[in-house]
Design goal:
With 353 residues, this protein is of the alpha/beta class. It is 29% helix and 29% strand. The N and C termini lie far apart (43 Å).
């Protein structure tokens, strides 16, 4: 079984402004990790997928960053999107490229900016998913066992168990559900049948290409004509923008989920850092290498560069982010609202994005 992996490294990580900027997005930052998130993602695949079988799909302006953080990656394995068109286009291009190299290869597709531990357990589940995909031809995804009624994740409802791969259960996917409200999320949690959608997929090249032909031919057909960067520049602006879940997985017949129980976080906002970083005795966490000096301060999240000191006195549940000449301060429970600052800057001062 020949295994390839595709790291999706597009996007600007605007929820992590001002540390995450257009010139250096979230996936290239050490947020909630010792190394840049994209570097950690590649390291987790070590022993399962080598650099020669690793592809990264990223924005054209970030190709140099990919080479910087993944120096062993062959240049031909960096697919540069001239414009973002969501994950369906990303998956289709990578699948077509891998199929040209090995039509029967198994592909692992995963985001570049998640925190997952321990890596050994993650690789074990990926191996099980690869076996299932290779032998059954199904489209496989990983589902995270929910620990609280999250409203910020999509959900997967699992049906009966179809197989076991080692210690891993393989279940039929009954349906995908978009981000629910609080009441529905509580119902999902109580039922025990629902999992968070981790956005991590495993499939054979021919299986995903067949599903794309059936459900998203308008994306796959033009993408298959790409043989050079000039082709990508010509094709991409005209592509429909859609997530792979909506474009294909929600409609496909053979979709299976492998539940996972180890530590997983998509680190979706500054408020999520206490999920992945050790806190001090008062629940404060520091990211990015900055030192934190807190007096009578509780439940705060700070981020800054190594060598910087952030001091807090008499405050609680704040996010404090220093990035060069930019400073962000907000309540932790308003972390999603950084999007409003980003929107205003996009209109008035885009150089600060």
């Amino acid at each position: 079984m020949q295994i390839y992996a595709v790291i999706m490294a597009g996007g600007y990580g605007t929820r992590f402004w001002p540390a995450s900027r257009r010139a250096l997005p979230k996936q290239f930052l050490a947020i909630g990790a010792k190394r840049a998130l994209i570097s950690e993602t590649a390291r987790r695949l070590k022993g399962l997928v080598g650099p020669e079988n690793l592809l990264v799909v990223t924005g054209s302006e970030h190709a140099a960053l990919v080479r910087r953080f993944l120096p062993k990656l062959p240049s031909a394995n960096i697919l540069c999107e001239p414009v973002g068109r969501n994950t369906a286009a990303c998956v289709a291009w990578a699948a077509a490229e891998i199929a040209r190299r090995d039509p029967r290869a198994v592909q692992i597709v995963l985001p570049s900016d998640h925190v997952i531990e321990p890596a050994s357990e993650f690789r074990a589940v990926l191996r099980a998913a690869c076996e299932e995909a290779e032998q059954s031809g199904a489209l496989c995804t990983l589902g995270v066992r929910p620990t609280y009624p999250a409203t910020g994740y999509g959900y997967i409802e699992a049906a009966e168990e179809l197989a076991r791969r080692g210690t891993c259960s393989v279940q039929r996917v009954a349906r995908f559900v978009e981000k629910p409200d609080r009441a529905r999320a509580e119902e999902f949690l109580k039922s025990g049948r629902f999992f968070w959608n981790a956005g991590i997929f495993v499939w054979r090249s021919d299986a995903i290409l067949g599903a794309l032909e059936t459900h998203a031919a308008d994306i796959l057909a033009p993408v298959r004509t790409i043989r050079s960067q000039a082709d990508a520049e010509r094709v991409y602006p005209g592509l429909r923008s859609a997530p792979i879940d909506v474009a294909v997985l929600e409609k496909a017949a053979q979709v299976r989920v492998l539940p996972i129980g180890f530590r997983w976080s998509d680190v979706g906002s500054w408020a999520a850092l206490p999920e992945v970083l050790a806190a001090d005795a008062e629940g404060n966490v520091a990211s990015g290498g900055a030192a934190l000096l807190a007096h009578d301060a509780r439940g705060n999240v700070v981020h800054g560069k190594r060598g910087e000191l952030i001091a807090l006195v008499g405050v609680q549940d704040l996010v404090v982010v220093r990035a060069g000449q930019l400073l962000l301060v907000m309540p932790r429970d308003r972390a999603q609202d950084v999007k409003h600052i980003v929107a205003r800057l996009a209109a008035s001062d885009p150089t600060r994005l």
